[in-house]
Give the backbone structure.
Amino acid sequence: MQDCISDAEVADATLVCGSPATIISESDCSSENPEPSAANNMGREPGDQPVTMGHDRMDVVRRYQTFEGVSEEAQKLFEERLRPKTRKNYDVNWRKFDNWCSRREIDSSHASRSVVINFLGEMAAMHKPESLRAYRAAIASARPDLDLSGDVFVAGLIKGARNRCGYPRGARPERWDTGMVLEKLKSWGPWSSLNLARLQKKVLLLVSLATCWRPRSDMGRIFLQSIQLEGDDDWPSAMVLTVSQPKGEESKTSPRINRFEEDREICPVLGVAELMRRTESLRAGRPKAKERLFLQSIPPHRNAAEDTLARWIRETLCEAGIDVTKYSPHSTRSTAATTALERGIPLDRIMESAASGHFGIITSDRRWIQKKSRGRSWSLRERGRKQNRALSPQSARKESKADYEETVTEERAVS
């Protein structure tokens, strides 16, 4: 099946329909340019004028849009459709392609389809297949004329790199042991004795496990004003959290999270209350509407970046003895959901807490429950024969018709 990149990855191409060779030549070239070299001719059509190498991605995009008659205000609005982190990733990946072309005396703004293919081929030897898709998206955003999203050969190249990858497709690691992590958190001592760095790491991991939320795009967008604590100020009886502008949604709210009476040292409600009390003086004089739950651990204690939160989780898991080469920070979602299901929490409540996205649950009867992306439906899949493998949805489609019908029946029973 042909690989396709998402709408966000190729959205830069939607307003551009002119020839990039024509547009760039008109804006960059002068009559004094020397004759093109043989290397430059690799990336340009016959008759094109040579241009200066080294182009910023957005400069290229703006030239295309200006040539099409798009106003500056419309161009600015078009740039704002993507999150800053996405734009930054596009710029970084385009810069790598542009530098690669410059070392070969090829103008990236005129690079041909074969140049892009050769670039992706070289990157396949040094990076993961997922990185190739990121490079393709960045190049497609600045060079829509190449139609990389619909190029069968480029899609096949990325698929070939994925098939060559040593990690088996469809293999999914089981959840890590929450007991090991909780014991490590308790060994740090009571809440009042923790420094700010450890306090935030502990709260972050406990809240991630309690909500099944994403450690980056969800936990990093919890604002103080959206936190509702109930009961005693010293140890609230419950709390409700709201995420502003999470990935793919406008907002989402957690179910009511009660305090953990059995052990206050791993109670996420007490942890959030303690963190808010501890950081109150650090936030003095700053607009409350912009203050998020987690702060940088060093002065001036600004809002912590989403990648910082992921690093905190990785460091905590590593300290607890979890293999971080096997489990990413995002594994808190599947781990929390699987643990909750095994302890008797109804599947509907787990799905309500997670709210959106995709993650997997390994049940006690060796089944793989996959929460579909951007939806609230669940699918049950038989696990693989090996203890450490579970069938992905793609592999599960290869099951026999009888097994599939049985799976559908079980799906309806769960729903």
User: Anything to note?
Assistant: Residues 1-51, 356-404 have pLDDT under 50 and may be disordered. The chain has 16 helices and eight strands.
